[in-house]
């Protein structure tokens, strides 16, 4: 059972601590900038600077994950993360924006290494039969850290001074270090043989091109990023359009609860079905949810559509993550997940600009129809390719027991 797997539980606990810490630190950094950085443009540039450093480091991070023992990589990333609150103590003491920027960069550096390392470690610590369920739990942890991190960060910023807040962050990051010390992540024979050789980040590209299932998953994910990146902006727009501030809370709650419920039962429903065609079919469910959201003045339809979106999300993302983990060799997973993280960050910046521009120029209803058409077209095209080439990836129902 997954819940008796110590290393898996430690990985999930560590990811929750790390993710929640990022959300809390981001809110605290915004609070710090509110007092010391009057320009909104400068605030945006500071935030983008940290993200840009994370993008630049991603190729190197992938090589480190594939070259070195993953537990040691996670340990090093956790130690680096502990430096961020320490630097913020200096920033608070001297009202230094430069130190705050350095702390934010340190957080992004640690995140660019830690998360891909966790994703590439999962196949080594769970049985193949439990991989889909593990990714579903991982998605639930992500959802909890997103909801809990923002809520907790808002409460803590309102009730605690920044020094105390960062001191508590440091305590949690030290716990994260202890979690990584207790992990036991075995290395495959293929991974061990690559340690002495020279690894290049670009070696992952031929692997991606040679696996149609991976390409299909990446294409469909790119379409969904247009919605996911502008998620907060869209919720705000729905709330303003209906002149109902409470709608924001309902939409966040319905989407989050829907994800957590359906992610918990994803493995039972999917079983040994083809993950490629299964994930593609959920693109049409995404399209249905977007069509429902296009009725932007209907409170009931918008809430229901966010629930449908959460359901599709809960199945789609564990399925495509499992495809990546099953089809890519262990010695290349670190570079792949680092590459994917890098591309997601770049796409996020582009998609956020596109979302904002479309909301201003054509309105939210027309924009949701465009997203529905794009999701349907992407689903139809990739489904045709998958059927033509007989692309299949299935979850194994048996496998050797992992540590």
Any overview of this molecule?
This is MFS transporter. GO terms for molecular function: transmembrane transporter activity. Residues 7-390 form the Major facilitator superfamily (MFS) profile domain. The chain crosses the membrane at residues 7-25, 45-65, 86-111, 163-185, 214-235, 247-266, 275-295, 301-326, 368-386. It is a multi-pass membrane protein. The chain is mainly alpha-helical and 403 residues long. It has two domains: 2-184, Growth Hormone, Chain: A, CATH 1.20.1250.20; 202-388, Growth Hormone, Chain: A (Up-down Bundle). The protein is 83% helix and 0% strand. The protein is built from 15 helices and no strands. It has helices at residues 6-36, 40-67, 70-94, 97-125, 131-159, 162-181, 189-193, 204-210, 212-229, 231-241, 246-270, 275-293, 299-327, 330-361, 364-388. α2 runs parallel beside α4 (97-125), α5 packs across α13 (299-327) and α9 (212-229) packs parallel to α14 (330-361). The radius of gyration is 21 Å and the shape is globular. It starts with 5 loop residues before the first helix and ends in a 15-residue tail after the last helix. The relative contact order is 0.15.
């Amino acid at each position: 059972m997954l819940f008796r797997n110590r290393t898996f539980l430690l990985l999930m606990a560590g990811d929750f601590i790390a993710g929640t810490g990022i959300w809390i630190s981001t809110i605290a950094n915004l609070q710090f900038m509110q007092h010391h950085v009057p320009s909104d443009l400068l605030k945006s540039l500071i935030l983008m600077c940290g993200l840009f450093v994370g993008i630049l480091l991603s190729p190197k991070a992938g090589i480190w994950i594939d070259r070195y023992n993953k537990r040691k990589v996670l340990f090093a990333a956790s130690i680096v993360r502990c430096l961020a609150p320490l630097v913020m103590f200096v920033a608070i003491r001297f009202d230094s924006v430069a130190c705050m920027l350095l702390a934010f960069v340190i957080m992004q550096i640690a995140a660019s290494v830690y998360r891909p390392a966790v994703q590439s470690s999962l196949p080594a610590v769970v049985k193949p039969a439990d991989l889909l369920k593990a990714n579903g739990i991982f998605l639930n942890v992500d959802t909890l850290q997103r909801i809990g991190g923002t809520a907790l960060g808002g409460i803590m910023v309102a009730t605690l001074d920044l020094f105390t807040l960062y001191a508590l962050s440091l305590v949690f990051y030290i716990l994260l270090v202890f979690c990584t010390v207790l992990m036991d992540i075995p290395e495959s024979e293929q991974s061990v043989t690559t340690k002495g050789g020279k690894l290049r980040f670009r070696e992952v590209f031929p692997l991606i091109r040679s696996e149609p299932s991976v390409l299909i998953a990446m294409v469909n994910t790119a379409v969904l990023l247009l919605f996911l990146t502008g998620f907060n902006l869209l919720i705000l727009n729905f709330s303003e359009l209906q002149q109902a501030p409470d709608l924001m809370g309902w939409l966040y709650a319905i989407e989050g609860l829907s994800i957590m419920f359906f992610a918990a039962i994803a493995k039972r429903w999917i079983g040994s079905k083809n993950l490629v065609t299964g994930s593609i079919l959920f693109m049409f469910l995404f399209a249905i949810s977007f069509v429902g959201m296009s009725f932007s003045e209907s409170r009931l339809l918008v809430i229901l559509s966010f629930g449908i979106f959460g359901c599709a999300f809960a199945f789609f993302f564990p399925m495509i993550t499992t495809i990546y983990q099953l089809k890519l060799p262990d010695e290349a997973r670190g570079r792949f997940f680092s590459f994917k993280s890098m591309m997601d960050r770049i796409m996020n910046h582009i998609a956020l600009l596109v979302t904002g521009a479309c909301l201003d120029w054509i309105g939210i209803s027309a924009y949701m129809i465009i997203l529905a058409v794009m999701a349907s077209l992407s689903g139809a095209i990739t489904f045709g390719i998958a059927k033509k080439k007989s692309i299949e990836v299935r979850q194994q129902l048996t496998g050797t027991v992992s540590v």
